[in-house]
Design a protein that fits this description.
- This protein is an alpha+beta fold.
- It contains seven helices and 13 strands.
- The strands form three sheets. Strands 1, 2, 3, 4, 8, 9 and 10 form a seven-stranded mixed β-sheet that branches. A three-stranded mixed β-sheet has the order 5-7-6.
Length: 294
């Protein structure tokens, strides 16, 4: 979800992080990946979300899904040979999946890796042990996921992640991101927790509850997060959400919101084909508040 805080700031200050020269060439967006981690609970499906530190550059203070920009290590040529689910993927698609898996481990401690001797995902105890050894080094770009896999004799379980959405920051922003959203079931015995650096809090929460709390002003939520939560809220279980994602993966429509001013406020327009409703969303006081058709 990284990069969408500019849209939130833009809704408050029309000049925030915008390109002042409208004839200038748009900034090239940076590739990034974010992952929506899911679990089943008696009250229904829950998703893991983190609260960004208010001092970081992007999405400060907002509740978001774990994620970030691609690192050079996400393109390591060794990755196809140490990954499950890499067959047939081009370099960019593979790098995005690796980035999503790396961010899940680096930012909240869930490790999508498999012991080739058993074919099982690593258990929570081993994930915690490996996290203590490698998460900070990954965050510091000292190593990559290929290094972890080779050192520990593991295979990166990219087959656990399904791409569900593609959002690009609007062209008028100074800082732009080309963000791919992934969906994945969290391994049942892994302990997920925020890293205490980029993220200062975390929560397992039902999509409907997160949306309700944001609407009530209890949480800051940005536009892309809201719409993806609304769509996720249509699934009752992890299996149902994953099945829907798998079915829709081939037909993902890129969303790059267009913003215009109207007498009712700022209007965001996105493709109806992307599956979020719309196409028009009126933004009044923030990128979340009162998003509705004019």
């Amino acid at each position: 979800d990284i990069g969408w805080n500019q849209l939130y700031q833009r809704s408050i200050d029309p000049k925030a992080d915008t390109v002042t020269d409208q004839t200038a060439t748009p900034v090239t967006p940076r590739l990034s990946a974010t992952v929506m981690l899911l679990r089943n609970q008696p009250d229904g499906l829950e998703v893991f979300m983190v609260v960004r530190h208010r001092q970081i550059e992007f999405a400060s203070g907002a509740v978001v899904f774990p994620g970030g920009s691609l690192d050079a290590s996400d393109r390591d040529p060794r990755l196809p040979s140490v990954s499950d689910g890499a067959d047939g993927l081009d370099q960019e698609t593979l790098a995005l999946r690796v980035a999503a898996a790396r961010e899940a481990f680096e930012e909240c401690g869930v490790l999508f890796a498999r012991d080739p001797a058993t074919g099982n995902l690593v258990d929570g105890h081993r994930a915690a042990d490996l996290g203590a050894r490698y998460r900070k080094r990954l965050e510091a770009d000292e190593i990559g996921m290929a290094d972890v896999a080779e050192a520990e004799g593991l295979r990166i379980a990219l087959d656990q992640l399904t791409r569900v959405a593609h959002w690009v920051t609007p062209v008028h922003m100074r800082k732009r991101f080309d963000t791919h959203f992934f969906l994945a079931p969290a391994p049942f015995d892994h302990t997920l927790e925020h890293d205490g650096n980029e993220a200062v809090d975390s929560v397992w929460i039902r999509p409907a509850q997160a949306l309700e709390e944001a609407a009530a002003g209890k949480r800051t939520m940005i536009f892309a997060t809201r719409l993806n939560l609304e769509r996720l809220d249509g699934s009752r279980t992890v299996a149902e959400a994953m099945a829907r994602a798998t079915e829709a993966e081939a037909g993902i429509v890129t969303v790059c919101p267009e913003m215009t001013m109207t007498d009712k406020g700022r209007l965001l327009t996105i493709p109806v084909e992307a599956g979020y409703g719309g196409p028009d969303f009126l933004v009044e006081t923030s990128a979340l508040a009162d998003n509705k058709k004019p």
